[in-house]
User: Fold this.
Amino acid sequence: MREAVILFNNVSKNYLLYHHITGGIKNFLFHFPKAVSQIKNSRFEALCDISFEVYKGETFGIIGRNGVGKSTTLGLIAGVLKPSKGRVIVKGRISPLLELGAGFHADLTGRENIMLNGVLMGLTRTEVFKKMDEIIEFSELGDFINQPIRIYSSGMLARLGFSVVANLNPEILLIDEVLAVGDLEFQKKCIDKMMGFKKKGVTMVFVSHSMGDVKRICDRVMWIDSHSIKMMGEPKEVITKYNNTII
Amino acid sequence: MFNHRIQHFIDLIIVLTQKDIKVRYKSSFLGYLWSVAHPLAFAFVFFIAFKVVMKIQMEDYALFLIAGLFPWQWFSNSANVSPMVFLGDASIIKKVNFPRNIIPLTAVLQDMIHFVMSVPVIVLFLFLYHKSPSLTWLYGIPVLMGIQLLITYGVSLMISSINLFFRDLERLTVVCTTLIFYFTPIIYPETMIPGRYKHLIYLNPLAPLMMSWRSLFLNGTLEPSSLMVSLVYSIFAFMIGYLVYKKLSWKFAEVL
Assistant:
């Protein structure tokens, strides 16, 4: 029996729609009864009763249309969100690569952000220092590494983000649709790196809209549709079904 | 493994504090200048208003002001910036899971560092008034700093957490710190408070602490009763702040 490193047991996730936030305390107090009923009633269900497991060393793909709950799923795995119902269990250090510039600060330079990101992901400063040159080289950012990242293009941000997580010995790698903005050459480099991780037995969760990549990398694919699991299994099968619904 | 965790925790604080200093002041040296210039400017204004214009009957009033304003500046800076600390780090909080209470802590630590670096300015003023630092400082400063760190961190944790849910808390915070400032004997000595209001001073959580700072800086003395009261207040503030944070922190990523 393979060891499951990510476990979702009947997980549901509701978001409150915080209308009262925009109004602040003043609004909340002046419209008290209405504000309270708003808190109770305005919920948005992002995930509904989802159960799945990801095994150690597996590359797990998640596909689905925009807004069906893929990013929420990753957020739950990364531990930044808590499930409303059910249980999420994750064993191992997580290296999340979610969205562009995630875990970065716009006013810091690329180099400083590598440090920030590495430490946030659970490494010590010495460990990050050791890998610093390797990361910078992989990113191919050249002199831009000493510039604040707010002047980076989205492609450059993606490079930096991937270089950091990929070179800091990840245990569980979460990759949201971020590679798409990189140029083809860098995308290929990333896919190669991920293939390397696969050989080394790193667990990966990969969200993508590029079915070609998913088919190439993933061992199993989960298709989320309208906030619950539509299908899970062999990449080929799932993707074929998925493509059929679109056309 | 245990060592690694402690080392990581320390590194996290160091890196986040460095980031804060860079982001808030663009450079650490300018940050230091601001942290000294701000209370000095205040001292100057109060000196003009109360000594020159209103002719308050007090010796060494400039020194008196500075000894009270520097520690106050630490508290008020940290409190006033606290509504923004989580918002400023939204991109980190939403993506990476780490103990979020470190963020307000680094903000408070940063102001603490600035306060420590401003102590030489107080010494300078002591010399200008033909006084000198006392040996009591050696343990007095760390003790008071510990107490102030606790109370400031508690307040900051509470405000920063609640502000995510009620975004107009920022205005209220500024109003409150200004009010507390004038209710605290900083620009006036506690001896000038009329008799029937005198006992009320202990209802102000900051008052005993600020009075302790000043008597330490000016006379090298620490009064045990003020010390005890401020310690109780600081533990209380920390506990409340931590409870509020605990209650709300799991929702941070959703509301940011």
Notes: The radius of gyration of chain B is 19 Å. The CA atoms of residues 21 and 240 of chain B lie 27 Å apart. DSSP finds ten helices and no strands in chain B.
